[in-house]
Structures are given as C-alpha cells and as structure tokens.
Amino acid sequence: MKTINKNKTLYELYFGYRNVFLDIFMVILSVAFLGVMANIRIPLWPVPITMQTFGVFAIAFFFGSKKGSLSILAYVLAGIVGFGVFAGYSSGMAVMIGPTGGYIIGFLVAAFFVGYMIEKGYGRDKKSILLCMVIGNLIIYLGGIISLRLFFADFTWWKIMMVGVIPFLIGDAIKIIGAMALFPYLWKGAEKLAK
Question: What pTM was estimated for this model as a whole?
Fold first, then answer.
C-alpha cells in the first residue's frame, strides 16, 4: 500500500489528535487486552498455548515500537506487582523467573522490532504482515527457548523444542493467517480517516 502515511502507525492514523491522557488510557487498555488474550488458552505443560502472541502483534501494529513496547512493559509490570494478567490469571515475579518468563521478555523485544518495522512501512499488505509476524515469532521463540534451557538444564535441545516451540507452530500459523486477513482492512480504514 503506497501512501503518504506509510510511516505512520494505526494509532497515529486513527487518532490524529492525541494527548498524554489518551496515551495513558490506551496503554492501560492494552494491558487489559493482553491480559484477556493470555487467558484464552489451552493448558499445556510447561508452557500453555494462548492468544498472547496475537495480542502482542496487534499492539505492535497499532502503536509502533515505542508505545508498543511501553504497553508490553506496562503489562509485565502489572503482572509482577500482582495483577493476574499472565496465563492462568497468574502474577508475581515467580512467573518471570519460571519457564514462561523468556516468552514474556520475548514479547517486549518482539513488540519493539515489529513496531519498528511498522514505522518503516512494513505490515500494510499480506506479504509484509507475514514477514513482520514471522520475525516477531522467532524473537518470542528465542526468548522462550533460553528460559526453558535455564529452567530445565537437564533437557536436551530437542526436548526443549518439543515443549517450547513445536506445540505452538500450528496455532501461530493460524494467528498469522488471521492477521493477514484482518490487518489490511484496519490499514484501509485508517487511510480513509487520515484523508
């Protein structure tokens, strides 16, 4: 999609006039949204299948790198201080140092990089949405693999892949297909509002 607005985020296009109160409200709304996504889940051990990754990408696409990663950071801090926003309505530092902590750190890093790609004009068409989400998922998987390796030092690399990556591939592929179907329409709507 070639446009004069190609380096703007969805947030900037939908809300041309913004102030700090709207920014704070939208970050709080993002924390709540990601908390809901975390608890749409299929319980698996040691890492459940959730809708969190879709939530992370939606936030990155909407806000871009800075506000996107700030929203994820606010989500992490909300979970650490006791709000039940992590999977299974869990909270606390124990989650961050447990087997799923690396994925949560991966969310933060992925939101920044995917948001940066959005600011550079990616993510407007199906092909670049696919690219953004594959890169984002690889970052999240890497964070998860590292935390699982630290937590389960006796696991082989193959076993870590079997519990930490393989179970999520089909679900993540479905999320990517959903994003490829949905996000272009969000951009088209934003473009119309920005005219």
Answer: 0.91
